[in-house]
Amino acid sequence: MSKVDKDSIIRAAEDVVRERGARKLTLDAVAEKCGLSKGGLLHHFRTKQSLLKAMLEAATARESELTAEFVAAGCGAAGGTLYARIESLFTLMEDDESLPRSLIAAVAEDPALLEPIKTREALIRREVCESSSDPELAQLLLYAARGLFLGRVLNVMEPDDPVYERLHARLLELCADID
Amino acid sequence: MSKVDKDSIIRAAEDVVRERGARKLTLDAVAEKCGLSKGGLLHHFRTKQSLLKAMLEAATARESELTAEFVAAGCGAAGGTLYARIESLFTLMEDDESLPRSLIAAVAEDPALLEPIKTREALIRREVCESSSDPELAQLLLYAARGLFLGRVLNVMEPDDPVYERLHARLLELCADID
DNA sequence: GCTAACATACCGTCCAGTTGGTCGGTTTTG
DNA sequence: CAAAACCGACCAACTGGACGGTATGTTAGC
């Protein structure tokens, strides 16, 4: 029996987005994907917005988890949390472009969605600042990684462009310089 | 006589987006805004997608124009085109957040929209690389500006956060270092 | 027998795109 | 030169389907 809890619904929604794009993330599609009727789906998430919010939270949680793993694996030793943050960003975007892209679309259409995320963002900023000898530069590096992230998930940059790997490496070097 | 050409339609569409948000950019709304019937509007842009494409092109054109102005004004002297590019990004995002946000939403929902923009992007990259003694770092600085841009238009960062101005200043310093 | 977890059926709205036509001007042709 | 044919710009009304959400069950477990 495929258990149908909120997590599996979120996973189904992610699959829908990956397979059919942001525009096609519809309640019917999600319901079908997780073998539920629309009514059943709406029993768990009373509105589409709340489903989107949960998806966003799941995504950011995964990012933080991944960061923690990188820190645990010792990457942190070379450049504070910043290094791990950036590595997890790169990992995520290499793993999957369409999900982040769709989440960006959702957030851009309805900024209220990321209210709950702002606190986490503030936390990241503090973390990054405190673990570095040059907090401003550290933040800029984080933003650079995010800018690259955006370019990548929006397909502005070809996924196999060699410059991409070079910039990645260079970013990590710069991180190490200011740990 | 309010002339109704493609440009004025695009301006109307931008107004709609600014006033009512990305989600509400509907053909009817645009038509009403520029005093045209929907049929008339669709005479100029045969699909909504083509209107969006035109809006994107207009926005990127404005950005390049603004960059050229900064270069002409002598800002370029201190850090190549990169400086001007970054300044124009900051100018744009301080000027208006909702239009860029909506364009990002549109692009994220339909990546095909920015196919025509990729060539311009390639041009920017070349420009930035050629005008700097450290092309990789120059690109990273550009991406950092874009990351900041994203954070700003998505309201992840408070618009009046003082750190924002500090990062802006620091970015420009770094530009000057590698001109 | 009460609640959580579903299902079925339906509603109302929104909205991109279509249809078929009007109207003023320009070009063609007899 | 004038009628006819044509054309670009525009409009009002409509269609058809997608989609979020509701209303009303049904069933299984405690």
From TrEMBL, chains A, B:
Protein name according to UniProt: TetR/AcrR family transcriptional regulator
Top-level taxon: Bacteria
Coiled coil: none
Chain ranges of the HTH tetR-type domain: 3-63
Keyword tags: DNA-binding, Transcription, Transcription regulation
Organism per entry: Microbulbifer halophilus
Family annotation (PANTHER family): HTH-TYPE TRANSCRIPTIONAL REGULATOR BETI, HTH-TYPE TRANSCRIPTIONAL REGULATOR RUTR
Keyword Transcription regulation: yes
InterPro entries on file: Homeodomain-like_sf, HTH-type_TetR-like_transc_reg, HTH_TetR, TetR_CgmR_C
DNA-binding region per Swiss-Prot/TrEMBL record: 26-45
Gene3D superfamilies: Tetracycline Repressor, domain 2
